[in-house]
Structures are given as C-alpha cells and as structure tokens.
Amino acid sequence: MYFSAQHIDVKLKQDYADFSTEKNRKALVLCDGIGEFTSSGKVSEVIVNQFIGKDYSKLSEVIVDEEVQKLKNDNVIGGTTFISAINKNQSDKVQLEYLGNGGIIHLHGDFATNVNSEEPYRYGELMIPHIAPNGALTKHISHNSEKRELASSKIQLTLNYFTGDILLLFSDGISSLEDKVILKDNENRFWRNENPAIQLILKELNLFLLDINNKESFEDDLINFNTSILKKLKSENYLEDDASLGIIITENVLNHYKLKIND
C-alpha cells in the first residue's frame, strides 16, 4: 500500500500535510487552517507534525499532546480541520478519521473505464462534512473547541478489490461535498454539480498510472505526482484557497494497470 500527502499555498498559507511510510505503519494527515483565525497555519503545522512525528493513531491523542496544549495555553488564536488515514502491519485495512470538512473518495483500479464517455466517473464519497446548513463548521480543532466540536467521525475500510483500491483525501480548497449542489430539472431529474478539480485529478491519475514502468520507484513517483497535480491545479486556476491532497494506492492497482499496458 502506497501513501503520499502534500499541500500547496494559494491564499493564506494555512494548510499543512505530511505522511510516513514505515514498514508496519503507514499514515497521512491533512489539516486545513480556519481562515478567520490569524494563527491557523501554525496550529495546522503543529498538529500535523505531532501526529506524524509521534506515531499517533487517533485525534484524541494529538489533542492532549503537550505541544498542541501549549498553543492553547499561550492563547494562540487558530484552528483547523483534520483528516487522517492509517494502515498498520501491512494489512489490507485503513482507519480513517476526520473532523470538519474536505473530502475522502474511494475508487477501484478500473475507475477510468467508462463505456459511456471518456470521463472517469466511478467513485464513492466517504466523508460527510461536519457543516451546518449555513455553511459554518460544526466540528474543528481550535482554541475554543469543546468536547462536542472535537468528536470526530471514524471509518474502517478493507481494501481488497481485485483491480485494487485508491483513496483520495483532500481539504476543501480542492472540494467538499457541500459544494456539490443538487439541482432538479423540469423533467424531475436530479443532477449534482461535479467539481472540475476532482475530474482533473482523476484524469491525470489515470495517465500517471498508465505510465508506470518500475514498481521499485513507484513510492517516489507517487510523491512527485502528488506535488505536480497540486501545482497544475493552482496554475490552471482550479484552486481559490490553500489545498492539501492525500493519496493511497494498493498494490493491485499497479497490477491492474500493468495488465492494461500489456494488452
């Protein structure tokens, strides 16, 4: 299972992301600083660094970390959302945890195969953002968060599909479910607005996987892809805010694409 997480500054320099790829513990975490608070970038960075650096497994551990508590004791005015993914002991299970908004989508290795068009289309939304009807965050980590705001959502997935599994995790600078507005036309059909940034990521991800030549270098190649796709999103004006992107790809995805390449 391959992990990567990267972030890019666009507006306020408040997103932060990192990952670790130890043999028996792979993890990534994305934090999207809350723009209305002046020191949210610092809060995001400290939480990410402590979560990865101390091999924490859940949000409740990093919340009581001494460096995170020091921010509160020093009256640092800041806050952030939180998305994490952890795989332990080379199993096929991934533990997801999130607080706030952003997104997590799940794809299979054959996600780009569409008999109806050239658009990649088969993926499932896993994350229902913690958002009030007026768009305000209902859960977050901040200097004034209480127990209610810090109660996270957790999902455990078993990634064992025969064409492989892919998880994309991202901050709301890229997309969030509440932005995918549902519309009804005059024939009583329902349509949901699709985020063009997601479609660009999926198209580029398919091209990237089609170009795999060496499994030994794939871990580094995935990190480079993650960085380059964020730069592409920014340069082509798909991002209006700082953005973070995490990617998880199982070995069977590479096997599936190897068969496609050799067909």
Task: Report on the architecture of this protein.
The chain has 263 residues and is an alpha+beta fold. It has one domain (2-262): PPM-type phosphatase domain (Phosphatase 2c, domain 1, 4-Layer Sandwich), CATH 3.60.40. Helix content is 27%, strand content 29%. The protein is built from 6 helices and 14 strands. It has helices spanning 40-53, 59-63, 66-73, 196-210, 218-235, 251-262, and strands at 2-8, 15-22, 25-32, 79-80, 82-88, 93-99, 103-108, 123-125, 141-142, 153-158, 165-170, 182-184, 190-192, 243-249. The strands form 4 sheets. Strands 1-14-11-7-8 form a 5-stranded antiparallel sheet. Strands 2-3-5-6-10 form a 5-stranded antiparallel sheet, with helices on one face. The radius of gyration is 18 Å and the shape is globular.
Question: Helices and strands in order, then pairings?
Answer:
Layout: E1 2-8, E2 15-22, E3 25-32, H1 40-53, H2 59-63, H3 66-73, E4 79-80, E5 82-88, E6 93-99, E7 103-108, E8 123-125, E9 141-142, E10 153-158, E11 165-170, E12 182-184, E13 190-192, H4 196-210, H5 218-235, E14 243-249, H6 251-262
Antiparallel strand pairs: 1-14, 2-3, 3-5, 4-9, 5-6, 6-10, 7-8, 7-11, 11-14, 12-13
